[in-house]
Amino acid sequence: MAGEIFGEEKRYQDKACQVLSAVGNVGVVIGLAMGGLLAEPVKTMPGLFGAEGALNWSGSEEGVKWMVEYPFALPAVMNAMLLGVMAMAVTTRLRETMHDQDHVGDGTECLAQRPYILLNDTENLFSDRYQEKSRAKTPLRSALTARTIPSLISSFLLTLHTSAFAFILPLHLSIPSSPYSPFMSNSSHSLVPVLFRFTGGLSLSPFTISLYLSLFALLGLLFLVFIYPRWQNRLSTMGLFELSLAIFPFVYLLTPYLSLFSWSHQDTDSITGCAGIMKWIALGVVIGGQTLAMTMAGPSAEVLLAQSAPSDEVRERVKEVRQLVTSFASVVGPVVGGVVYAKGLRDGVIGTAWWFYLVVVAVVAAAWCVGAQGRVYEEPMDDEKK
Question: What is the CATH number of the domain that holds 323?
Fold first, then answer.
């Protein structure tokens, strides 16, 4: 939408993408904190939903009955309510930005802005708008050019591994830690168990996980607002994108080893003691690296895709294809990642999904960006050649 609104003004496209990402990060911060607070509300908010809570009208000794039976239902209910509000706002207030669809939604918008319309004027109001002939749509094949295809593939690969990471990480942080040390294996090949064959998570509570993730999302927001523009001016958009893609493989490579910091630490949510401090520092490095890379990759990928289209009409079609591609990747990524993660958990190798799925996809994405996309990006467009 940013590319469609600002057209050929690339400097405004960059700023718009940064603003959209910043607003999205604000939602992530609030959403994660809210999700952690609302999960298991009988435990996190006993004053409201506990045995003596103000909203425990049934007087149950355990707390609000349905929240005890379904401890994770309240975040889903709140999410459904917010989605309903968003749907109403989009339906009544959001304007169409596509050039060949600019007549769509105008009637709804007029009704939202003018609640008092005479009945005899309504027919003229709608007929005048819909009698206008819309411009012919740009063929979908026009979006598949030598410049747009590499950007679309990069968007697919980026979404493929980042969506899987967002799905697997909370699972890894919440599953029980291993009761034994991986360094005490009786195997004759001692290096294999130490380096690869270990299992277990960090046994963190949902509230702790959401609070920690929201903290780093807030740091990502600050980075996007204050540091990202300076780095972009110094390294260029493509340079930032390549840097972010180089960070992802190292993050995924190190993430499974967080389990090694928790097997001997019984109080999993505590930050006291040497083991606890080391665990939280390691967790901060992993999540901080992912947040930094994703904060750079998101706006950069959006800007590069918008700049790869030669015209506004083609850009609209490119955005449609990108939405299709990223939606498919956001479905496939978590599914494949979850299956591989479950297999590794059964086999006693917790890093299977990280090393043999996420790292591989991230390396392929980085190689593709440096090779195909980077080479095409450096070539001038047809109109620039002229």
Answer: 1.20.1250
